[in-house]
Amino acid sequence: SSLTQGDVEGKFKQLNDDPNSILPMSLFYQYTANNPDQVTQAIRKFYFNGAENITLEMVPQLTELYTDDLFTKGAMEAVRRHSGPVFLYHFAYNQSFSLCSEYFDNPWHPGVCHLDELLYLFPMEGNAPKLVQNDPDYTMSKHMIELWTNFA
């Protein structure tokens, strides 16, 4: 997240000084919510237990907030609108290599990030390490391929 890059302390200060401006703008509800300030308070209560300030220790909750907004909300809406059976999966394998840790200098990286599962389905050229037989990552790759091909 851009909150954990660059001037982190300044960004958190801005978020805490003006949450009724920052959260609606970054989550795109400033023009769609009837009462954006009330939505902001509900978000703070739900994700941060109503804490007065959002701190660096709360990066996992902040990550969950933006994950819900950017990924989960859209996926659940697609499931709701689709007339046939839908199968979702949640990839939570904490592997030895992650695209986030490789491409973003982020000491608050909470674990698996967007697109990490693709490393186990398709060979990746570049910085991704080659999977070695009998390694846990290799075993995960075999499981992922088997799951996907059985599903197809």
Structural class, by secondary structure, is mainly alpha
Provide the succession of SSEs: HHHHHH
Shape: flat
Major sheet: none
Q: What's the overall average pLDDT, rounded? A: 87
Number of E-state strands: 0
- Ends apart, CA distance between termini: 33 Å
Give Rg in angstroms.
19 Å
Low-confidence runs: none
Helix content: 40-55%
User: Which band does the percent of strand residues land in?
Assistant: under 5%
Structurally, the number of domains stands at 2
Question: Can you characterise this structure?
Answer:
There is one protein chain. The protein has 152 residues and is mainly alpha-helical. It has two domains: 2-81; 99-151, no CATH class. The chain contains six helices and no strands. It has helices at 8-17, 19-26, 36-48, 59-81, 99-103, 136-151. Helix 1 packs across helix 2 and helix 2 (19-26) packs across helix 3. The longest helix has 23 residues, at 59-81. It is flat and about 50 Å long. The chain starts with 7 loop residues before the first helix and ends with a helix. The mean pLDDT is 87.
